[in-house]
Amino acid sequence: MAIGITLAWTTYGTNDILFFKSYAVRAGETGVAPLYRDGAKLVEFHTDWVEQMAHPPGAIHIWRATLWLEQKTGVAFHVWFRILTTLALALTALAVSRLVGARAAAVYLLCPAAILLASFHGNSDPLVVAALIWAVYFAEQRAPVWLTGLLFAAACSIKVWPLFLAPAFLLSLTNWRQRILFLATVPAAWFALGAPYTFQFPMLILRTVFGYRSIGHWWGLAATVPGYDRFGTILSFAAVLAITVYLHSKGTRLYGVVGGAIAVFLVFTPGFGVNYLAWILPFCLLLEWRSIAGIYFSSSVLLLIAYTHWSGGFPWYFADLLRPGAALSWSVIYASTICWVTLLLAVLSATPALPWIFARPAPRRKTPLPVVTAR
Question: Measured in Å, how far apart are the chain's first and last C-alpha atoms?
């Protein structure tokens, strides 16, 4: 936590934190509908740049609250927001300790990638992950379905990417009555958490949020398969559904099913940002230790290289992708390729795909000691 607070206090982060502050300012000045229609001019550094808005309205409440804190305390928006995401990291670790154990939670808290994504980057994924993993915890504890649905909706009200995990939650429920309650709770809570905007112009919000497509021509299959961005999204969701059903059929607990679905999505997705790595870090701790170490190490190396390149060197202050010359470097591409391959190998090692590659040797039989009899 001390490292995280220090990073939040002494650095600016990435462009994402600048975008969020600009969204909050635009929402306060002109209202939310113009923000969704036209985007927002950046309020610092690149004041001629207009960034389009594609986040759910629930996130706007968080940004505006953070902007209010800046105005009332004089402490900058980028500091307050990353203190919030650092606290989300601690909440996620607490859930990990209850789901997997204290040792796993300590490993997660010490992962450089987890610290950097929560305390330097400045995106909202740590908040999403915190709500999501507590939804998993309460689902495994057989808590009231409405509570699980509320937490899942809270995650989706900040970013909508957890929606591809809905089948995992539905399969974990014991009967259709619970599934119907979950399906009713999630959209109702999503609209409530985004109120009043979700009721004022719902079609504009739905069209903008669900029409967003991230880009990632330097990641995974999109970097090697021509035209993959045209069909990669459908393939990603199909692969996620397949692994979800498979793991559930094997009796895997919800925590493992969610982790498997996230890992498969990251392998097949045509769009990618380094902040997506925050999704898998707390959900891979049921894997064999070599897979965990590989994911944590390769993710950390990718972030260290990317932030150094985007910041124009070390020490970091502002990792600015809009800066001239901040386009992807070969070092970032190589590091991302290694990270993607590591995720692919982790998925293959945990599924029946290509089992002969990962076949484990049969345990050696211990030769019994000769029995010595007295003569």
Answer: 69
